[in-house]
């Protein structure tokens, strides 16, 4: 057991999740690097320093989630921040981890298989719900806890409803899953409104990561910025919001 606040970041062995873990460690947190592969999580933790610990966590596996929650309670005794970062843009196939036609094209609901759509939702939506539910007992015990879900402007129904918005042509399984994450964020925020737990969604912008085959135009440092801010907001901070570092984003 230790006195530092503890933050769990899912999908933190690389990309934006790893950067969020690095930034929170620099702000005095003990960070738990959630990773499907414990080996990859340990490698990432070593790159952060002594305040980072690898945690085997597959957000699509209930047994893995329960085991992670038990380890946090037994080994760290607390959880102050949960960042639901783990996400996929497509259902990966062996030998073709990124679709040759692009995730946005292959994910269009006119062509994507139900199996592939379910795979995206299992990680991006149901994974967020499952991990949050499992960690709530720990978060409720904290004097002030924060939940940050990684949203996306690509899932903004308001933005995508504008006819002139070219992104409309790419609105498929991934974008729809992020719309669902926004709704899930509000559902948890409303349910926890009377508690000391604040729940918000952060948009990282078009960040260069494996999620988009490194086609993004923003750095992981930029992509992590808003999630880190929301993880550390004070008692007077908001709940039930969606924002990036420039301010609120329309749902």
Q: Tell me what portion of residues adopts beta-strand conformation.
A: 5-15%
**What is the level 1 CATH name?**
Alpha Beta
The radius of gyration computed from the alpha-carbon positions, rounded to a whole number of angstroms, is 17 Å
Strand order, largest beta sheet: 3-2-1-4-5-6-7-8
Family: Belongs to the short-chain dehydrogenases/reductases (SDR) family.
Protein name: SDR family oxidoreductase
GO molecular function: oxidoreductase activity, acting on the CH-OH group of donors, NAD or NADP as acceptor
InterPro entries: CBR1-like, NAD(P)-bd_dom_sf, Sc_DH/Rdtase_CS, SDR_fam
Describe this structure in words.
The protein is α/β, with parallel strands linked by helices and 251 residues long. The protein has one domain (6-248): NAD(P)-binding Rossmann-like Domain (Rossmann fold), CATH 3.40.50.720. It is 42% helix and 14% strand. The chain is built from 8 helices and 8 strands; from the N terminus they run E-H-E-H-E-H-E-H-H-E-H-H-E-H-E-E. Strands 3-2-1-4-5-6-7-8 form an 8-stranded mixed β-sheet, sandwiched between helices. Helix 1 links the parallel strand 1 and strand 2. Helix 5 runs parallel beside helix 7 (173-191). The longest helix is centred in the middle third of the chain and has 28 residues, at 114-141. It is globular. The protein starts with 5 loop residues before the first strand and ends with a strand.
């Amino acid at each position: 057991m230790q006195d530092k606040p503890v933050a769990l970041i899912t999908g933190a062995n690389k990309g934006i999740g790893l950067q969020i873990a690095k930034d929170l460690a620099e702000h005095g947190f003990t960070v738990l690097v959630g990773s499907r592969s414990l080996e990859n999580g340990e490698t990432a933790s070593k790159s952060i320093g002594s305040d980072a610990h690898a945690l085997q966590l597959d957000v699509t596996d209930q047994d893995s989630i329960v085991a992670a929650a038990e380890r946090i309670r037994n080994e760290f005794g607390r959880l102050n921040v949960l960042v639901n970062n783990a996400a996929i843009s497509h259902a990966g196939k062996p030998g073709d981890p990124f679709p040759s036609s692009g995730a946005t094209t292959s994910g269009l609901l006119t062509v994507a298989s139900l199996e592939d759509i379910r795979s995206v939702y299992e990680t991006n939506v149901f994974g967020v719900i499952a991990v949050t539910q499992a960690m709530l007992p720990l978060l409720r015990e904290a004097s002030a806890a924060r939940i940050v879900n990684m949203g996306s402007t690509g899932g903004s129904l308001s933005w995508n409803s504008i006819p002139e918005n070219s992104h409309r042509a790419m609105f498929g399984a991934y974008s729809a899953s992020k719309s669902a994450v926004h709704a899930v964020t509000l559902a948890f925020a409303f349910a926890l409104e009377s508690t000391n737990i604040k729940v918000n969604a952060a948009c990282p912008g078009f960040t260069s990561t494996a999620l988009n085959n490194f086609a993004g135009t923003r750095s992981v440092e930029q992509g992590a910025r808003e999630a880190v801010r929301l993880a550390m907001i004070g008692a007077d901070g908001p709940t039930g919001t969606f924002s990036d570092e420039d301010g609120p984003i329309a749902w």
